[in-house]
Amino acid sequence: MEKAYRVKKSAEIERIMSRKASVGDGYFVVYKDENKESEHFRFAISVPKKYGTAVERNLMKRRIREIVRHAAFLESSEFFIIVKPKAADLSFEEISTRLLQLFARAKILKGQNQ
Asked: What confidence tens digit (pLDDT) does each residue in 26-49 have?
């Protein structure tokens, strides 16, 4: 996944969160926004220190990036994924299933009726 697909600046993350368009479950929260000027989707991930050690947090981020890499998103979407500490108990398949369900509920996947 190229870095051009990532939202890095705090101001951009705050803008996405300020829209208050979010979906979530007990493990993840996905905030979404639309950016018509962007030529592709962009995303950011936040894993809090309560989740675990740096090794565990980085593993979760790598897993989420891999799930995002294989999903087909709308070009104009920007989203911010927050991982809750409870997600540490999930396997890769469970993480993938839950995130794809949240993306579908947020209507940021291609092929969905808006």
From this structure: 899 999 988 777 778 889 999 999
Cα–Cα distance measured from residue 101 to residue 105, given in angstroms and rounded to the nearest whole number: 6
* Between residues 19 and 60, the one the model is more confident about: 60
* Rounded-to-5 percentages of helix, strand, coil across the chain: 45, 20, 30
SS3 of residue 42 by DSSP = strand
- Phi/psi for 28 (5° steps) reads -140, 155
Nearest to 37 by CA among 65, 20, 12: 12
The residue with tokens 């300020």 is: 18
CATH code of 20's domain: 3.30.230.10
For residue 48, give its domain range: 3-106
- Report how many domains make up the chain: 1
